[in-house]
Specification:
Number of helices: 19
Helix content: over 70%
Largest sheet: none
Number of strands: 0
Shape: globular
CATH superfamily of the largest domain: MFS general substrate transporter like domains
Structural class: mainly alpha
CATH architecture of the largest domain: Up-down Bundle
Strand content: under 5%
Number of domains: 2
CATH class of the largest domain: Mainly Alpha
Order of helices and strands: HHHHHHHHHHHHHHHHHHH
Distance between the termini: 36 Å
Oligomer: single chain
Radius of gyration: 22 Å
């Protein structure tokens, strides 16, 4: 496959990923209008997202297995089409039970048919030496597409009077984008990327994946990074409530942190990993940046005089987070996971790595309630710092393991040559 064709596939995957997740997470941008449109209480509205999270978590591992067993192209096309069809149903604003069914199906489809298939296609787009840039460009592409879609939706929301009809138009427009993604993915993912890379695996091979130490180490890396990422949502209120930054300035910093740095840092991290020749080393460096920033937030005085330092630390923190999020699945190739088991490995890693969705918000919420004000934020940052240190240790162990295996492989090759 040509270079430009591979990059176009990454663009299509980015567009589809944003469309598929934009529907269930629409509440993040249009909460009040969406609540009015769906005609649910706040508790019922929250319940729809809870069922989404439960079904998503359940189907991470089966989705990885399916990505090895079935055609990733067909899985992706089905995920986009089914998500769009459910979105059209959602746009009619059916009752509470129907909305629970929609969100449950969205969660299951997103992980059973989309997540691992998307990462498996990305893995197949490049050689072992190109994994960093492929995954980095995917994450960066998702960032820039997300910005475009969000601002286009906001524009039409404003133009249409910020009403229920404007929310309906946004939902339908996103459904159209899902259908378009389905068509594009069908015609852009070639047959050779559609291949599972050999014989179909059996369920017993899941046990083989679980016996690969590197899979567990990568899972710890993803879990650590994701725990810190969830905690990062409290950086903005920390700036306003503790440091006294205005809401406008804090919002501008948040936009830069969330969107601009995601677009810039993720591809950069990927290209650096490929240039250096070690994805695990770059991941370790990312954890160092994150740990330094969190140590500053934890131990430096929380005063208005620390605003400039805090902004610098926040930039370092975000560079580390997004550079790593772009490549933390890429070491699968470095660890020589068989191509026929890549999807299963991604599924297993995802179950463990995204488990912070279950506990991290609860930890932070309890700390903030038990220790109001500055003290609560300091404890939150300390927990995040602990996870960053755990991730750093895992990355160092993974890097050492990969180097050791390369030395063994080189000696074996020399022996065969002699």
């Amino acid at each position: 496959m040509g270079k430009h064709q591979r990059y176009f596939v990454l663009l299509v995957l980015s567009i589809g990923a944003v469309a598929l997740y934009f529907l269930p997470y629409l509440r993040w941008s249009f909460y009040d209008s969406l609540v009015a449109a769906v005609n649910l209480s706040n508790a019922q509205f929250a319940a729809t997202m809870s069922i989404y999270g439960v079904t998503a978590m359940i189907f991470y591992a089966p989705g990885g297995y399916l990505a090895d067993k079935l055609s990733p192209r067909k899985m992706l096309a089905f995920a986009y089409t089914a998500t769009g069809a459910l979105g059209l149903w959602y746009a009619t604003y059916p009752g509470f039970i129907a909305q629970m069914i929609i969100f449950a199906l969205w969660g299951g489809i997103g992980t059973a048919f989309f997540w691992s298939a998307m990462l498996r296609v990305t893995n197949n787009l490049g050689s072992q030496e190109e994994q960093g840039r492929m995954f980095g460009l995917l994450e960066g592409g998702r960032g820039i597409v997300n910005v475009i879609v969000a601002f286009v939706a906001l524009y039409f929301f404003s133009k249409l009077g910020e009403s229920v009809s404007s929310v309906t138009a946004i939902i339908i427009g996103t459904c159209v984008l899902c259908f378009l993604s389905s068509i594009l993915i069908w015609f852009t993912v070639p047959d050779k990327l559609d291949s599972t890379g050999g014989d179909k695996i059996h369920l017993r091979d899941v046990g083989k994946v679980l016996k690969i130490p590197a899979v567990w180490i990568i899972a710890v890396i993803v879990l650590s990074c994701y725990s810190v990422y969830i905690g990062s949502t409290y950086l903005t209120p920390y700036m306003t409530e503790v440091l006294g930054v205005s809401a406008t300035v804090a919002a501008a910093i948040a936009i830069m942190r969330t969107y601009v740095l995601q677009f810039l840092a993720a591809p950069t991290g990927g290209f650096l990993a490929d240039k250096i020749g070690s994805i695990s080393f770059v991941i370790a460096c990312c954890f160092v940046l994150i740990a330094v920033a969190l140590a500053a937030f934890t131990f430096l005085p929380a005063t208005s005089g620390m605003i400039v330092v805090s902004v610098i630390m926040m930039v370092l923190f975000s560079i580390g987070i997004f550079a790593m999020r772009g490549i933390y699945f890429a070491p699968i190739d470095e660890c020589k996971v068989p191509k026929s088991m890549v999807g299963t490995a991604i599924g297993v890693i995802s179950v463990i790595g995204f488990f912070p969705d279950v506990y991290m918000n609860a930890i932070v919420g309890n700390l903030m309630d038990a220790y109001p004000g500055v003290t609560g934020y300091k404890y939150v940052f300390f927990v995040m710092l602990a996870f960053s240190v755990l991730g750093l240790i895992a990355a160092i162990v993974l890097n050492h393991k990969i180097k050791k295996e390369k030395i063994i492989d080189a000696k074996t090759a020399d022996a065969v040559t002699e």
